[in-house]
Amino acid sequence: MDNIKMRAKLSSDGVTEVKMIMNHPMETGRKKDDFGQLIHAYFIQLVTAKLNDKIVLEMQWGTGISKNPYLTFYLKGAVVDDKISIDWIDNLGKTGNGEILVVAA
After folding, report:
1. Are 43 and 65 in contact (CB under 8 A)?
2. pLDDT for 47-90, tens place per residue?
3. Cβ-proximal residues to 13 (8 Å cutoff; 6+ apart), any chain
4. Under CATH, what is the fold of the domain 4-104?
């Protein structure tokens, strides 16, 4: 199973649109299971985006983010075939990652 599905498209104005969906249950710790027991909190805490190994975006998340988070961001300075990579770590120490090459729109 892929942790992250991504695409990155460079437009004619030099702006790259990066879209992704991250597979993660994102439990708040406030929901109960069928037996009335609380489901433990389980959520992505840190997301880092890199362009050719240089950090361009870093986000700290909490329980307010929905299951399988979808994210779009824009950046300048990328060219076709540059590498964009995403890494995340959750509150239980599990990690996910993905990478893609920039393509022309």
Report:
1. yes
2. 999 999 999 999 999 999 999 999 999 999 999 999 999 999 99
3. none
4. Immunoglobulin-like (2.60.40)
